[in-house]
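User: Hey, quick favor. My workstation is busy. Could you predict this chain's structure for me?
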Amino acid sequence: MDFDLTADEILRYSRHLVIPEIGLQGQNNLKNASVLIIGCGGLGSPISLYLAASGVGRIGIVDYDVVDLSNLQRQVIHNTKRIGTSKVQSAKYNLQALNPNIQIDIFDEIFSSNNAERISAPYQIIVDGTDNIPTRYLLNDLCALTGKPYVYGAVYRFSGQVGVLDASKGACYRCIFPEPPPTESVPPCSVAGVVGVIPGLIGLIQATEVIKLILQIGTPLISKLLLIDALDWRVNVIEIPKQDGCKLCGPKPEINHLIDYEEFCKMPVQYQSLFEENAFSINPPDLKNLISNNGKIRLIDLREPVEVQISSIPNSENIPFHQLLDKMTHWDKSQPLVLICHIGFLSIIARRMLMEAGFKDVKHLNGGIRAWAQEVDRSLFIY
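Assistant: No problem, here it is.
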């Protein structure tokens, strides 16, 4: 039997080679495998590091962001010296340093319906390292339409979930979520927060599932979701049945091509695009002038109390977002309000809720307390 492993690779992967389920044949299969990872942040870091270390021969990474100091609490593929540089360039540098025997392809662009088929064409398995709903639907549809397995992962604070969605063998993402959730139910990591080790834990499980799929061993999480709550160590595996009525993978599919997923989900891939100046927002310098001129406004800070301890605007009232519906029933609907949150995500949603309830004059602080600290009060901590 012929194998194309070099002497260096035999030594490098020697701990794999003595495992009956892997051996020379399995390591050869890993070397000839190709995997595309969307995102090289909290999930993409451990996924790519361990697939590279395991000897997956070709790894593609898609990301459009740059390394920020706030990333380093969980995005362990990057380091302090890489702040401000392209994430895919940073990832490639470290992956090639870890394993120079493999091929790393990088795509410094937003993964969208326009480029998804082109980028994904050479790869066998697609892995989700993202944190937004539109891209998850895109990945699911792409994989179902091209017959590839989609290794899904998601994290939130102390919890996470992993599944293998392969429409040719079982359920797809649309079988679980036929319709996208409301925007406020899926806040980005910068709003909800995540314990740094949780993406590591979930990403490693995703990498394990990729290896099992390549080697065709064990029982992959096809049509299953592994749910982990690390705070109390609750671990469950739930079965996800394939839905006969699924518009993508059911017997009478209605979806046969990629669509505009931002429009479908009513939310952007880049949350920053929400935070644009308009008639319903107020920029930090304008709010400062309004406060200085004794403008009769009420400042409502929607963040959690632990966030207010980090930084706050003087004379603002802390009413956490989840308490807003109860509290607002007693407010004067004609009083001008300015809503504040961390980066402007929750304040946009809260403004809509208030306007729908009959409030007359509600604005949200564009960019939130972070923008205020950057543009008005530089003594405040940025987080």
